[in-house]
Amino acid sequence: MSYYGSTDYSYNSDFNLRVRDMKKGNLDFGWLDDARDKVEVRRQDPRRGLMLQDIEVGDYAIENTPEVVRENRGLAPRGAILAEGSDQPDLGPTLNKKSDVWGYRVQSYWEEAMSRQWNVTTDVPWQDMDKYEIPEEIEFAFCQLCTLLSEVEMIATDLPSKWSHHMNSQFQEVKGFIATQCIDEARHAEVFRKRALANGVGLLRASVRGEHALKGILEADSYSEGSVFLHVLGEGFILTLFRSSEFISPTPVEQRMFQLVMQDEARHVSYGLQHLKYLMDECPEARPQINGFLDEAERHLTGLFNPDQLESMIVLGGKGTSPECIKRGVETVGAFQGKQIQEYFHRAERAGLPERRERSPLLELQQRMLTAIQAV
Amino acid sequence: MAIKFPSVEFFQELANRMQGNAAEFEKLGFCDTVMAVKVDGGDPHLYGLTFSCFDCTDVRELGGADELELDFTLVAPLALWREMFESIQKSGIPEPAYTLNSLSHVGDRMAVVYDDPEGHDKFYRFMATIQAFVNQASDLDIEWA
After folding, report:
1. Fewest C-beta in 10 Å: which of A131, A266, B17, B104?
2. How far is B130 from chain A (nearest CA, A)?
3. Nearest-angstrom CA–CA distance, B49 and B128
């Protein structure tokens, strides 16, 4: 035990006396003294049930929360009545500005996440795997890809977990949304692990370069830096990688798997984009810091283009290891990577960072890749 | 009775089936996007599809992309749409080369046209629903234009 409060409530005589009174039926209803007027809540769409957007009313609405939250540093949910004075414990949240964490439409991302959950065990048609013959070289390449993707998903689970308790509880929807991200990413790690093992090959080589890139995400100095690295840059790239992986999947079983994971990934990208946009709108002075961070983060990210992953993608893209297949695979993978970079620039531009296109080290990387492909 | 492709009636039939297959689409979750399907060729057609909650709530032919606030438009020639639906009709789901993602990912077979990257990302956020929506054509008697 490392926390000993200033009061030992188990030996609090006032409390014990009150409980004795209550047991006799003497309730004082003091907890109703500060009750506010009732709020009017309307379900906008009965088919959806009660949405978070429906309960954004009065003191409970995020729009009525100041940019800097000073009063609530404990666990009280937004709109709860705080004790007078400073009796609420200070849990030390470090993310107390709305622009530190908020993103446009967070509530709808939460609802979408809750509604679109799926189950690796039952929603992937594992029973169909026996219907298809997969050449051994393709199976090995696919398992190498699954190994890297499992590593990626580990970090994508850890980053939101790392920051959640630093967020002020006023921002409940963001804490909730990144909790859904944790379960999404844990599910992705599960599906790639299961698929790698399903045909007996198992997991192959872990990536040194890749893990250095991923460590950079976890070690970001602020939540916004971590978010722009993970959600916009990293997951944006991985979303395109999932699309590519669906495209080169050996059978409909893997295609289904990637259709499901890409949905989750795209939702995380959307939140990251809306957080970055909110940050740029509400806190434009953060722009140099974010740009400086991305200059380095984009270099880090190139670690995800590691030789093992590239080779496995080339084998999958070309559907074999003959010279003709490899040539086709190189072209296919080159096209994926160009798309990854362009889509990232487009998102950055939309979020308010059009300068990424000019200053990014990814451009040089793309040029090198294009030259390499033309040389094949 | 055969349903002509492309036509409003074709997409309306898929929307009706979506309501009939409520359990499948409720399992997939909320789907909120306004998309369009463009059938290119000598006689091009553009159809707007509005998805809300678990349904496709509006199907209409559009005179131009500015008639709806579209998240994205899938653009392909009639021949490719035909290949895709014929592939779906073989076994209820498309062959690997004919999923919406595969068709639109590399090359210029099917284009995904969008203005806003978030609109573009909705194609992927709701991919399983949109794929299931078109897969419902698996047993439709289709009259090709």
Report:
1. A131
2. 11
3. 16
Helix axes A208-218, A287-301, angle to 10 degrees: 160
CA–CA separation, A99 and A80 (whole Å): 22
Contacts of A267 in chain B (CB under 8 A): 125
| CATH top-level class of B3-132 | alpha beta
DSSP string, A226-258: HHIIIIIIIHHHHHHHHHHHHHT-SSHHHHHHH
- Asked if B123 contacts B130 with a C-beta cutoff of 8 angstroms, the reply is yes
What's the complex ipTM?
Answer: 0.95
Under 8 Å CB-to-CB from A100, ≥6 apart: which residues?
Answer: A167, A222, A223, A224
**Backbone angles phi and psi of B30, in degrees to 5:** -55, 140
Note the residue count of chain A: 376
Residue A172 burial class via C-beta count within 10 angstroms: exposed 0-12, middle 13-18, buried 19 and up: middle
Domain boundaries of chain B, sorted by first residue: 3-132
Domain positions in chain A: 30-94, 104-375
Please give the CATH topology (third level) of the domain spanning A104-375.
Ribonucleotide Reductase, subunit A (1.10.620)
Contact list, B128 vs chain A (CB under 8 Å): 259-260, 263
**Contact residues, A window 228-247, toward B, CB-based 8 Å cutoff:** 239, 243-244, 246-247
Q: Which of B101, B105, B116 sits opposite A350 (nearest CB)?
A: B116
Contact criterion met (CB < 8 Å) for A111 and B116:
no
DSSP state of A206: P
Q: Which of A239, A266, A332 sits opposite B106 (nearest CB)?
A: A332
pLDDT (tens, 9 = 90+) of chain A, 376 residues, equals 888 888 787 777 788 888 899 999 999 998 888 777 889 999 999 999 999 999 999 989 999 999 999 989 999 999 998 887 767 889 999 999 999 999 999 999 999 999 999 999 999 999 999 999 999 999 999 999 999 999 999 999 999 999 999 999 999 999 999 999 999 999 999 999 999 999 999 999 999 988 888 898 999 999 999 999 999 999 999 999 999 999 999 999 999 999 999 999 999 999 999 999 999 999 999 999 999 999 999 998 888 778 888 999 999 999 999 999 999 999 888 888 888 898 999 999 999 999 999 999 988 877 776 676 566 5
B55 token code pair: 């349904």
CA distance B111 to chain A (A): 13
* Half-sphere exposure for A141 (CA within 13 Å, toward CB): 24
